[in-house]
Amino acid sequence: LKLMCQYSATLAYSCKQSPVPCQKPLPVTKKLLTHCQLADGHKSPYNCPPIGLRCVALPYWHPLFYKQPETFMKRITTRQELADCVTQWHKEGHTIGLVPTMGALHTGHLTLLKALEGKATRRIVSVFVNPIQFNNPDDFRLYPRGLDADAALLEQTGGADILYAPDVSQMYPDGFATRILVSGLDTMLCGADRPGHFDGVATIVTKLFMQTQADIAAFGEKDFQQLCIIRRMVQDLNLPVSILPVPTVREADDLALSSRNKRLSPERSEER
Ligand code: PAF
Fold first, then answer.
1. Which of 87, 103, 133, 231 is a Cys-bridge partner for 200, taking CB atoms 3.0 to 4.6 Å apart?
2. Nearest CA to ligand 1 atom 2
3. Which residue has a Cα nearest atom 8 of ligand 1?
4. Would you call 131 exposed, middle or buried from its count of C-beta atoms within 10 A (0-12, 13-18, 19+)?
5. How far is 74 from 185, CA to CA, in rounded Å?
6. Sorting pLDDT into bands at 50, 70 and 90, what band is 266?
7. 177-182 — which CB contacts under 8 Å span 24+ positions?
């Protein structure tokens, strides 16, 4: 019988760096002794030894034998909660990676998240359908949404530490009046038919950079004009974030993956 010794933090968690009680014990291997879900929802920091460890011998057929403790993801909806978390991460020396999205997540988004592996020790996926980048109200209304499905996908695939999904009032308080204007680059290509779109993108992306305190952010080459504008903006405004471009992911018939593909009619899908 093959056995493996694993540990569960069964008692309250207390130490200087992390005075938050352990709410839910997570299975941890000998190597990662300190994994534990803290009361505020975060995983415990590695350098903080839990007290009250109990050694449990697990047979190879037990699901916990294979469970990875890293898959826990926290859902955050307020700026304050996010600020507390990212400030703590930076104090602990983590590098924060961001994947900004408007949700309806697909493999393209997961590829952006994967691209941050090894470049960021903590990864955030933001989901926010940004009203000010839509110049057509129907496009905004019909944009595919499904936060629970997005959360389930991220939990299943792992890699995200936080799903940040603020509502409009968190992003645009009453009387909101300030925008980032991108001149020149937004009047050609797709921007020519979408006046104001890239100003809306630049504004929300800047807000997301500031709120998440991201050190690095991944953007798909699929939206190439967007990528160029964001790089320009980061340079012009000296924003302390690196931009990681990620190659486009395509379906077998070469169509680029996009959340909007869900809105293709069956005939259009066939035509493509
Ligand atoms: O590419 C997108 O999904 C959006 O334009 C972004 C960057 C998340 C800003 O809303």
1. 133
2. 101
3. 101
4. middle
5. 37
6. low
7. 178/203, 179/132, 179/203, 180/206, 180/233, 180/237, 182/229, 182/232, 182/233
Ligand 1 centre to CA of 207 (Å) is 12
For the question of residue 106 being annotated catalytic, the response is: no
pLDDT tens-place string over residues 150-185: 999 998 888 999 999 999 999 999 999 999 998 888
Higher pLDDT, 56 or 122: 122
CA of 165 to the centre of ligand 1 (A): 13
Ligand 1 atom with least separation from CA of 223: 1
What value does the mean pLDDT of the chain take? 79
Residue identified by tokens 């961001």 is: 98
Top mutation candidate among 223, 259, 261 for ligand 1, by most atoms within 8 Å of CB: 223
Planar angle of CA 159, 214, 207, nearest 5 degrees: 120
Q: Which letter does DSSP use for residue 188 in this model?
A: S
If pLDDT is split at 50, 70 and 90, which confidence band does 196 have?
very high
